[in-house]
Every structure is written in C-alpha cells, then in structure tokens.
Amino acid sequence: MIQQHIKIALLPLVFLAACTASRPPVTSQPVDMAPYTPFAVSKWEMLPDWQTIDLQPAWAAFWQSCVALRNKPGWQPVCVSADELIQPDNTSLRAFFEERFIPYQVFNPDGTSQGLITGYYEPRLYGNRVKTARFRYPLYGVPDDLLTIDLSEVYPQLKDLRLRGRLEGKRIVPYYDRGEIDNGKAPLQGRELFWVDNAVDLFFLQIQGSGRIELPDGSQVKVGYAEQNGHPYNSIGKTLAAMGAFKIEESSMQNIKLWAQKNPEKLAGLLEQNPSYVFFRELPNDLPAPLGALGVPLTNEYSLAVDARTIPLGAPVFLSTTYPNTTEPLNRLMLAQDTGGAIKGAVRGDFFWGFGEQAGAQAGRMKQSGQMWVLFPRGAEPELKP
What pTM was estimated for this model as a whole? Predict the structure, then answer.
C-alpha cells in the first residue's frame, strides 16, 4: 500500500519529468498516440553541398561519438571500420559515410521539414569561492534534498525520463522553483560552489549548461550541468516580447542583457518567469571542452544539441541552415552530442559555437531556419510506421 501511495503521489510530477543531460533537460510532454514517422529515407545528393564540404572537422567529432557508442548494437562495426582509416582525406571520408550510413531526412509532425536552429556556447563569468560585496550571486551544487526518481520500471512509457522532487512530510512534491530558490526558501546554504558578480550572466550560464569561472587571481575553473529542479523551461525572451520590450524576431541574448542593464529593478521578477533552475558541478580543468549529454567533450561548431526523444544521441546529423543573421549557407555534417531544455521538436537543433565572446556573439544571434538529416548505420535503421 505504501508503494501504491508513492506512485499516486508522483503522478502530478510526471509533467515535470526530465532527461539526464549536460544542460537543462527536456521536460516531458503528454504522449501523442497518433501515428507519426519523423524520418523518411533520403539520398546523398539531397544533402546540400555534400560532395564539396570539408569532412575533416566532423571526423574529429565523430570519433568522440564512437567513444560512447562503439559497444552499442549497430555501432560496433561502424566504429571498428573507422579505426581502420588512417589519416583519411575528404574523398575517403565521404566514401566511408556513404558505405556505412543511410541518410534519413527529419520531419515535423505536421509534415514540414523546416525547423528552428539556435546556438549556444561556453561563457566566461567572473567569480570567487567566497561571497564578497562584488561576488554575491551563488552558483549552487546539487541540493541534498533533491530527489531524482526513475519510474520506467513502473511506467514503461516514461523510459529515459526522470522525476525531480523533494519530501514534504511523507509526500513527494515538486522541488522549489527559481523564485523560491532565489528568495532563499530552498535549504541551499553550504551548497554554493562559487559566487559570481552578475545575475544575468549566471542565468545564461544555466541555459548554456557549462562555462568557465575566472577567479580574482586570474585562474579559471570549469563548471558543468549536474542536475535540474524539474520545472519546465520558459523563454524570458518570449516574455519580454509579450511585454513589448522588443519584437519577437529581435529576441536574442544581447537584447535581453541590454534590457536588464536598463531595468535592474525589474530583473528579478523577469528571471522568475522561467521556473527552471540548474545546479552545477566543478569539472576537471584538463577537459578540452564541455561534456555533452552523450558524455563526451563537445567539438566547436560540429556538436549539435537535439531533442533526444527523436534524434538518437551520438548520431551524425547533416545540418542545412544559414549563418546567424544572414542568408549565407551553413551546410555541414555535425554530431548529435547534447540536449537542452529549450530544444524540443523533431527538426530542432542548437549549434555549439565554442568558448568566449566571439562564440557568444554568434550563439546569441543565431535564430535560423534549417533542415536536418540523420545518418543511421546500415543495419540499424529506424522502423518507419506506415
């Protein structure tokens, strides 16, 4: 009976479930039982510029995927074959992919092939390990009272989803939201990893999922996603657009930061409109790049965050879009190695630009339309519904 009561108590939390990821995870949605096939077999000639693009940088990212996937069904022969290629040129790499993979174009539930492509990056923040007059905004580690519950054995339809909550007496209830955490309601004293000097930068660090903290002595430490409070992500850019701060097509990280500088007295109320909150962990400084949801370091401009409910993590994804704020084509082979709280939908991608201000400028402006093709290993193709 106790177990049954726990299951019933958890049901209201189902819609706060989230996948484990390196960034704020994708919150679950009610399952649509209507037949829907997100993939359709395509041809290599349908991939724009496939015959001319440089595959060398993508090959480095592909190797990272093989580190995580080489022992999984369908991937072992592909990764073993990749081991046999010594200093391959573009011609041999193109032949490798065409021989070992089949391209499938990705479609939305309404049958369209265009989707939103945004960007993210690894920011630098200024902080300290102790609180001071300048450094007063806490970056928290995982709370001691945060519960993470896997219900897949009880509810198979929730496979790969986790619930976040906390105990209130004998009941499991949703964990504290952003407003409650920022207002000191959550018991987080002693869980501060660092203190930073800018609340907006801290907010965007939670969206990016990883970053570097520059300490007063000039040294840097790396931090990455550890957990999330289970609440759904809500775009403050859309909130500001609805308030009339700017047009929705002008929503960008840069414009949000500009609004915050002009309206410091309204900032706390705005940030609370996104109840999702991310907790961090300190990472080894020798990591070459942030770790994605696949568990391997990301590759600048060749790692893509996707909705893992549709796109399998680790798979090569051919992306056809345009550079930020331009019509210049951006066609390249990327690797699905990460996820994100705002990355929801079949044709939906988040382009990892790398570290620093230039990467941040590109990521903050990127809001392009694009198409995607997933490359599935031969023999491990998706089952297409009639």
Answer: 0.81
